[in-house]
Amino acid sequence: MASGKSPIVWVLAGVGCLGLLFVGAIVAAIVIPNFITAREKAHQFETLAAMREVGEALDAHHARHGRFPAAGSMAELAPPLQAAGAESPPRADGWGNELRYLCWPSAPQGCEHYTLASAGRDGRFEQEELSAYPGEETPRNDYDRDIVLLDGGFLQYPGRG
After folding, report:
1. Tens of pLDDT along 5-20?
2. Which of 41, 58, 124, 139 is packed most tightly, with the most Cβ within 10 A?
3. Order of strands, edge to edge, in the sheet holding 147-150?
């Protein structure tokens, strides 16, 4: 052989490379899913925090005016919340999807109740009407499920399991 190394050295080198590749594949199979899960949990936590922040601003508005703001979108909701003291209320959930707001009964001066919802990771709402949610704890790792806040309390939310 021109290189001066025996075939056994080449076989051992090849087996060693395959071994490293095998170990690397095992590490990747463990690390990548854990990273993805951690990222989705962070988006979910960010969504819950954003919804709590908007809920607190809505409560402050209610305390000051006796009603929740009449608005059809987060863009319409922002000015009344800023007037109630919220600096820059979140408009989107942790996945970047716009939150939905509904108040009822709707009147020009405001509403008695509200619902705030996130469509979750998939960006699709489970219910067309925000008032149609039955209220339930959902599996924590089902990131596509909607998260719903009703008058300051979570109606549908990720559970502990």
Report:
1. 788 888 777 788 888 8
2. 58
3. 100-104, 113-118, 147-150, 153-158, 136-138
The region that residue 159 occupies, defined by phi over 0 for left and psi between -120 and 50 for alpha, beta otherwise, is beta
**DSSP class per residue in 24-67:** HHHHHHHHHHHHHHHHHHHHHHHHHHHHHHHHHHHHHHHHHHSS
How many domains does the chain fold into?
1
Residues of the chain with confidence (pLDDT) below 50: 1
Asked, for residue 1, whether it belongs to a domain, the answer is no
Cβ distance 30 to 108 under 8 Å? no
Look at residue 2 and tell me if it is in a domain. Answer: no
pTM attached to this predicted model: 0.79
Residue 107: the pLDDT is 73
Domain with 92 in it: 7-158
CA distance 158 to 161: 8
Pair of tokens at residue 158: 């990720």
Distances (CA, A) of 119 to 66, 89, 103: 29, 18, 17
Per residue in 130-140, pLDDT tens?
A: 888 888 888 88
